[in-house]
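Hi everyone, sorry if this is the wrong subforum. Our group has a chain we'd like a structural model of before ordering constructs, and none of us has done structure prediction before. Sequence below.
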Amino acid sequence: MVRLDNGKCIIGFDNGYQFGKTARALFGNGVHGMGKVEPSVREHSLKYGRKFYKVGEGRAAITEDKVSDEDARLLTMAAVAKELSMEGIRKAEVILAVGLPFSDYGREKGRLLEYYSQKPGLRYGYEGIRYEVDIARVFVFPQCYSAVAPRLGNMEGSYLIVDIGSKTTDAVYLEDGIPVERRSVTVERAMVKWLRQIQRDLQVQHGKDIPEDEILKVILRQETLLPRAYVTLIKEGIREQVHMLELELRERGYDLDFCRVIYVGGGAVAVRNFSERRPNIAYDCDIHANAKGYEYLARQILRSQGEA
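Answer:
Right subforum, don't worry. Here is the predicted structure as tokens:
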């Protein structure tokens, strides 16, 4: 969150298909309606209007878009509350900075702006605390590009930025810090599909349904109680998925041997841990990178307009 001199706050929110991310908070993207039944515990509880919700528990199913129901709004409310609570703020004018996959940006930006403009005044409770939030302005930025936005001034020459998300992977080609759109793509290879394939392989090989979070522990090299044979299969599976992604990028004309490549975001961890290290490839594993980039870009625009 960025606090401006005029009292407004810039809050970046990366609404992923697996996790919601702000500059400082990370939570699941699950939204579960509870009607008028108050939750037993306050954690992840949200009250909006006369209804209660659990927001931030587990992962929601992947959908074609995020503006056909209230879920994105509820997730945004939780994200804003998490950032405001860290500063002890309960009432705020918020400049919201959000993003879209690079290839969807031009087509979907208007719909996302319209979605948030429908209900700019939000009065709700989150984890037992009441918030009064007025969305004063909304900025929409392209993912992947935003993740490296704060360092674009130092990126001379050619770079390929690869952001492995939950649903899609963005590959943005930069020349002297400027995206070359004709050489930038979004591909349908990403973490959720990888996890599903590994789950299917575990079911076939061992007859067990293994939760996603246990598979992620192996990918992130965290401690797990899974048997060694399961761990081996998971490692082989993620290595194969990373290899297939790189093959697709090569087929689309990217030279991954000589071009400077930066993998960004949470998915960068999988590539770093399960692919061959090469001197031309770097890894920025900050899962909050896009949200931080949204805030940076929003502030740059406001400064150019004399508002920050």
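For your construct planning: Helices lie at 71-86, 105-117, 191-206, 212-219, 228-251, 268-274, 289-304. The chain has a mean pLDDT of 93.
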